Amino acid sequence: MRSPRPSLPVLFGIVVLVAIALARSGEIRERALDGIARGMPAREADLARGFVLGADEGIDARTEEDFRRSGLAHLLAVSGQNVTLLALLAMPLLAAFGIPLRERLFWVLGLIAAYVSLAGAGPSIQRAAVMGAAGLGATLAGRRRSRLFALVAALLVTLAVDPAIAGEIGWQLSFAAVAGIFVLATPIREAISSRPGASGWRRALAEGSAVTVAATLATAPLVAFHFGTFSTTTLVANLLAMPAVAPAMWLGMASAAAAQVPGFPVEVLNVPNAFLLAYIAEVAAWCGRPDWAELPVSLDGAELAASYLAIAAVGAFVLSSRPRGTRWMVLAAIALPGWGLLAPFVVRGSEDPAGSPPGLRVSVLDVGQGDAILLQPAAAPGILVDGGPPGSGLAAELGEAGVERLAAAVITHDQADHAGGIEELLGHFPLERLVYARLGRQRLDLALRSGATPVRAAAGMEVRSGALRLEVLWPPRELLSSPVSGADPNQSSLVILARWHGFSMLLTGDAEAESVPLRPAPVDVLKVAHHGSDDAGLAALLARADPEFAVIPVGEDNPYGHPTAATLRTLARHGVPYLRTDRDGEVRIDVRRNSFAVTAQG
Questions:
Q1: 305-354: per-residue pLDDT in tens?
Q2: Where do the CATH 3.60.15.10 domains begin and end in the chain?
Q3: CATH of 360-600, one of 3.30.420.40, 3.90.1150.10, 3.10.290.10, 3.60.15.10
Q4: 550: enclosing H helix or E strand
Q5: How deeply is 123 buried, as exposed, middle or buried, from its count of CB atoms within 10 A (0-12, 13-18, 19+)?
Q6: % of the chain exceeding 70 in pLDDT
Q7: Residue 104 burial by Cβ neighbours in a 10 Å radius (0-12, 13-18, 19+)
């Protein structure tokens, strides 16, 4: 007997719910952000906002690093997992009101749309909604073929909305995780729960473990390929955190909803949730802080493909007790999407390294007397470190470099020759995050109005885009808490170590080594501080960092005499070749897996 179609009042209710959420998402989100953390300690409050609403900017650098190194970083952003948990929570509640299955599905889809607006409605949130809806379809589908159909539907929908999304690492990881869950979770669960006594809570534990193992297996090769690291503790960390993750998500979502009701005591939900979040944070610390928790790795395209073939072989082995036709169907389901995702990388990996496109391009732009350094990793949005003075034509420079949007713009310190160009971009160029150490109220307000997320940086923080990692070395957080009045802004300039696989570049802003104590490991390229001004600490820095090349961003015929003769002599004594933008124009560094090349574009 066919299920009845949803009634007109039900559909009308869903439309009204979504319309209100979309129209007032800003107000609703603010109440949710406040309510979800009320009554919690500061760390747990920031984690709650990140877990449920994707607002992770308040999470301190140490905790964020623990989550990254332990393989739990996916919990700090809204993902398909959040959406699937929301749906699984809503389904039995709706069933308790006697709502038929098909009408429940419509209500859940309405809730997903409302949640998307509540979480900010950004591209990553929309992707999470599609993947979460696919996860719901897979969970409710009884047949493996139906699950595969849900996966293909999610793939086609996301590609139809934005065909270029296939090149984004976040999408690849989401798709790989969902594909792994669809294909491997059920046989792994059945293998675990087939043991004697596997029922009740044991079966629930087997279900959660199977999903965790499947998603971890499916995403590990991509993480290693893109980020050049492998977390040795990720499986243990996810299994230990698993019992607390779903309850923490559900309590957080319930608190966000309850916060919309004036006077509701959300603390009754938040207090137990704080204990769950504290436990998850401790798991991240246990599994993320040992030196051996993260290992450097380097996978080329062929090795990445081989990793997925190995996973396919594992899947086939797990299903070896099933009918032959099913085994081959599952093997194809794992291998074919993997090859589809990885084909561009396999081709790139097989090319002659000398003729292959760079995996990272660093452009030290010629913007006159100022700094503007663009870092463009392959298959991920670029990051801009400083923007030169106002009126330097930065937007045109970005356009010529093929940049359509930026994952982040970094202002090393609040002076016009570094911040002016970025200020002109705000509101006129797609920019996800504005990273700074100290920033004037006017520029900060402009960033907020433009839609960019302000992120205050200090030593220990890391900014990522694809395989590119920008680690903040200076200033320490304590320095930023000291009074600003009378302080030299150069002493609180951000100093950043940019890393892409085996390549590293030290970006010093205007922080001369004589004033800023740094002990960096050897690097490939040094950006000379403060346009090559006199620096009594430069010789010691060169001895420690031992760069193969140096770049000096400086304006032609500047009135300060930069770069000074003393700085150039110090570079010469240490045998460090250099280029300078006033004479050589833009300096371009093309980085491949095992080499880099520096060219002057002037």
A1: 777 777 777 666 655 555 444 444 444 444 444 444 444 443 333 343 44
A2: 360-600
A3: 3.60.15.10
A4: strand 549-552
A5: middle
A6: 67
A7: buried
